[in-house]
């Protein structure tokens, strides 16, 4: 029996797949689901056999947001004291690359969860939005910050202030989404991308992720310096020697993750 009730966690080769599984609530993110997603992703991250992770939902909903029914009666003192939603921050500390495969609704916390992943592959049915304002709250899992960095101030303000959704085309044009694929192909394409990532050197893939993420935290000059030092450090790995030797010898590299 699975140790999880609100998600499915399975391995597909070197890829860990986490599927949100509360279909009756359109995968609304309640506390149990939050704990289970974080635990499953962290377990895959700690597993040396796993090189990348896919987070996905159902065809109708990646996730329709934080669970409104669970939140409804909470008081300020409660949400403040328990630092409600802060557990999600642990996903940002995960070092393995994470691909979000998004079909249907990715609203509120659903959009925020997708944005905590490293990139989003969307089906042509995907709908993104931060509709919290319609409930008398604002985004609480980083939406106002990550959406603004992804799509710029104009569209982030539009979405956060009007609560409207944007479709996959608009999201791709705006830079939120890396690729759009037909709904029927979504999981295959996401798995393919994750499998490609997992076939690279794991430490080097993590360095690439770390370097891109640093761009959100620092100035350009500091970020370029950070990148340069990490680039230099790749030369301390066996995988740099193997990758370049394989190119010169016109063969496929055999990375040893070291
Ligand atoms: N929380 C709790 N339950 C939810 C939910 C949510 N976010 N979204 C949907 N559900 C439940 C519905 O209550 C319904 O349950 P019942 O059958 O028991 O009534 C079931 O899922 C199916 O939903 P609908 O009948 O509403 O389905 P629909 O196809 O008519 O509409 C929808 C789909 C447009 C996504 C609509 O469900 C909706 O608007 N959901 C809420 C979206 C939202 O406001 N999200 C933001 C939440 S706040 C947040 O996320 C804060 C944050 O920053 C983290």
From TrEMBL:
Coiled-coil ranges from the UniProt annotation: none
InterPro entries per record: ClpP/crotonase-like_dom_sf, Enoyl-CoA_hyd/isom_CS, Enoyl-CoA_hydra/iso, Enoyl-CoA_hydra_C
UniProt xrefs under Pfam families: ECH_1
PROSITE patterns in the cross-refs: ENOYL_COA_HYDRATASE
Top-rank taxon: Bacteria
UniProt key word Lipid metabolism: yes
PANTHER family assigned: ENOYL-COA HYDRATASE, MITOCHONDRIAL, ENOYL-COA HYDRATASE-RELATED
Family (UniProt): Belongs to the enoyl-CoA hydratase/isomerase family.
NCBIfam families, sorted: PRK05862.1
Protein name per Swiss-Prot or TrEMBL: Enoyl-CoA hydratase
Natural source organism: Rhodococcus gannanensis
């Amino acid at each position: 029996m699975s140790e999880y009730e609100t998600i499915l966690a399975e391995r597909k080769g070197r890829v860990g797949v986490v599927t949100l599984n509360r279909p009756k609530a359109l995968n609304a993110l309640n506390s149990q689901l939050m704990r289970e997603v974080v635990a499953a992703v962290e377990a895959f991250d700690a597993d040396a056999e796993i090189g990348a992770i896919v987070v996905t939902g159902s065809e109708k909903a990646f996730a329709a947001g934080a669970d409104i029914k669970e939140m409804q009666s909470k008081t300020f003192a409660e949400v403040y004291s328990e630092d409600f939603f802060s557990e999600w921050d642990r996903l940002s500390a995960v070092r393995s690359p994470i691909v979000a495969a998004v079909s249907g609704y990715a609203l509120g916390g659903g959009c925020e969860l997708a944005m905590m992943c490293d990139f989003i592959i969307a089906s042509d049915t995907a709908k993104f939005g931060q509709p919290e304002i319609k409930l008398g709250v604002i985004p609480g899992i980083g939406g106002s910050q990550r959406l603004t960095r992804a799509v710029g101030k104009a569209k982030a303000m539009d979405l956060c202030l009007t609560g409207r959704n944007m479709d996959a085309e608009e999201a791709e044009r705006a830079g939120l989404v890396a690729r759009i694929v037909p709904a029927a192909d979504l999981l295959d394409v996401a798995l393919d991308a994750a499998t490609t990532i997992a076939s690279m050197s794991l430490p080097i893939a993590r360095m690439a992720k770390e370097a891109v993420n640093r761009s959100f935290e620092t100035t350009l000059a500091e970020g370029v310096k950070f990148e340069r030092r990490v680039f230099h450090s790749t030369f301390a790995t066996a995988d740099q020697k193997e990758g370049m030797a394989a190119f010169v010898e016109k063969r496929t590299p055999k990375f040893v993750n070291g």
